[in-house]
């Protein structure tokens, strides 16, 4: 069986972290005996420059015909036209492929706790997953417009949209520590009132799973004072975006955090949660771990290679534990030095 992968390097540090990751994928496929066919496509700012469109038809077609998509990052100071931004390509692909469930794990083991800027005793043994709704909420609600005098964004959620993401969260929790924390702003927002009521309803089908509700402002505090209390956090699009960047501080760096986006069918998309990091782009300084851990999620979920995924995750963490890290984690290695070390370890 040959797996088809579409690679979307994108902008800024995107190409720097994708290139080495694809080389590692080739090495892993030889070692673990499976075949991959990789098609690399223009996406984001580079696609605006070359084709006038952040998500060209040809790129979307390749994604639709693949088994999985690996994405670096998009955006940057070169693309400021509010009507044609690299980020529109990202929202466009999520919507076109109906990738409504975005999974963002945070794990800190005994051996990685020292990397956190927070106290080791607080972060040690943290293991939770943020389930972020990805195709609704303020990102997509209509009307949405701006003129010189006014700007409007609309926060809409339907019961169906909330129900399907709630099932994802409960099903995950059933396989884990059986605890769902739903995060909303029920004291103010109508959409959050519907969110909370729907979560209560869906929870009736999962009697073994405990459901708690937290307001998003309090959750942002709990996240960094007592992250061990969480198992599965489920929340709407914008809250999930913000809380997951905050959560990346717990293991140590935004450069460490991976993600996977799933629809009900079709290819899934794997990308680190960070952006194109314009401040370090082109300098060989980017931490490739978030991209590599996203590749591991891809190997496990889309390519049916759990042992290969585990091998890659083990090597990413043992490399970090040996002190071979980029500056964001306190080390002095370049992106390419980290990639070379990981290749040798494989
Ligand atoms: N999925 C995506 O493609 C994605 C995600 C987030 C932001 N963005 C876009 O990226 C651009 C820059 O956004 P931003 O600066 O707010 O966020 P960012 O995530 O790009 O960077 C925030 C900070 O984290 C650092 N950082 C990020 N990734 C790192 C890595 N792998 N290694 C080491 N340090 C890392 C950066 O250097 C920067 O200081 C914007 O255009 C934004 O829209 C894209
Ligand atoms: C770039 C931006 C549109 C995107 C988002 O907000 O979803 C990013 O921040 C992310 O977390 O994937
Ligand atoms: Mg984000």
TrEMBL record:
Pathway: Amino-acid biosynthesis; L-leucine biosynthesis; L-leucine from 3-methyl-2-oxobutanoate: step 3/4. One of its GO terms (cellular component) is cytosol. The keyword Methyltransferase does not apply. NAD(+) binds at residues 275-287. One of its GO terms (biological process) is L-leucine biosynthetic process. GO terms for molecular function: 3-isopropylmalate dehydrogenase activity; magnesium ion binding; NAD binding. Its cofactor is Mn(2+); Mg(2+). Residues 4-342 form the Isopropylmalate dehydrogenase-like domain. It catalyses: (2R,3S)-3-isopropylmalate + NAD(+) = 4-methyl-2-oxopentanoate + CO2 + NADH. Keywords: Amino-acid biosynthesis, Branched-chain amino acid biosynthesis, Cytoplasm, Leucine biosynthesis, Magnesium, Manganese, Metal-binding, NAD, Oxidoreductase. SUPFAM superfamilies: Isocitrate/Isopropylmalate dehydrogenase-like (SSF53659). Mg(2+) binds at residues 217, 241, 245. Signal peptide: none annotated. Substrate binds at residues 94, 104, 132, 217. It is found in: Cytoplasm. Belongs to the isocitrate and isopropylmalate dehydrogenases family. LeuB type 1 subfamily. PANTHER family: 3-ISOPROPYLMALATE DEHYDROGENASE. Catalyzes the oxidation of 3-carboxy-2-hydroxy-4-methylpentanoate (3-isopropylmalate) to 3-carboxy-4-methyl-2-oxopentanoate. The product decarboxylates to 4-methyl-2 oxopentanoate. This is 3-isopropylmalate dehydrogenase. It comes from Mammaliicoccus stepanovicii. The lineage of its organism: Bacteria, Bacillati, Bacillota, Bacilli, Bacillales.
């Amino acid at each position: 069986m040959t797996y088809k992968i579409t690679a979307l390097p994108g902008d800024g540090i995107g190409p720097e972290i994708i290139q080495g990751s694809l080389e590692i994928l080739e090495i892993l496929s030889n070692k673990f005996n499976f075949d991959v066919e990789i098609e690399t496509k223009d996406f984001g700012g580079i696609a605006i420059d070359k084709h006038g469109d952040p998500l060209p038809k040809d790129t979307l077609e390749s994604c639709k015909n693949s088994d999985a998509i690996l994405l670096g990052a998009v955006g940057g100071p070169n693309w400021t036209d509010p009507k044609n931004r690299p980020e529109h390509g990202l929202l466009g692909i999520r919507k076109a492929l109906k990738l409504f469930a975005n999974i963002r794990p945070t794990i800190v083991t005994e051996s990685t706790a020292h990397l956190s800027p927070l106290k080791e005793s607080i972060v040690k043994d943290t293991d939770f997953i943020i389930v972020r709704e990805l195709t609704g909420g303020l990102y997509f609600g209509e009307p949405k417009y701006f003129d010189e005098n006014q700007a409007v964004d609309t926060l809409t959620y339907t019961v169906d949209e909330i129900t399907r993401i709630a099932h994802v969260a409960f099903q995950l929790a059933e396989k884990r520590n059986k605890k769902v924390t739903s995060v909303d702003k029920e004291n103010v927002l109508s959409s959050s009132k519907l969110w909370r009521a729907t979560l209560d309803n869906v929870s009736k089908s999962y009697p073994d799973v405990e459901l708690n509700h937290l307001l998003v402002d309090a959750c942002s505090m709990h996240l960094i004072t007592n992250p061990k209390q969480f198992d599965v956090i489920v929340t709407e699009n914008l809250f999930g975006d913000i809380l997951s960047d905050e959560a990346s501080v717990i293991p140590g760096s935004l450069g460490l955090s991976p993600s996977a986006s799933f629809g009900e069918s079709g290819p899934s998309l794997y990308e680190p949660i960070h952006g194109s990091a314009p401040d370090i782009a082109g300098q060989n300084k980017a931490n490739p771990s978030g991209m590599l851990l996203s590749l591991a999620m891809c190997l496990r979920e889309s390519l049916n290679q759990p042992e290969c995924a585990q091998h890659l995750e083990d090597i990413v963490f043992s490399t970090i534990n040996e002190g071979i890290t980029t500056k964001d984690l306190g080390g002095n290695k370049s992106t390419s030095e980290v990639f070379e070390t990981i290749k040798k370890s494989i």
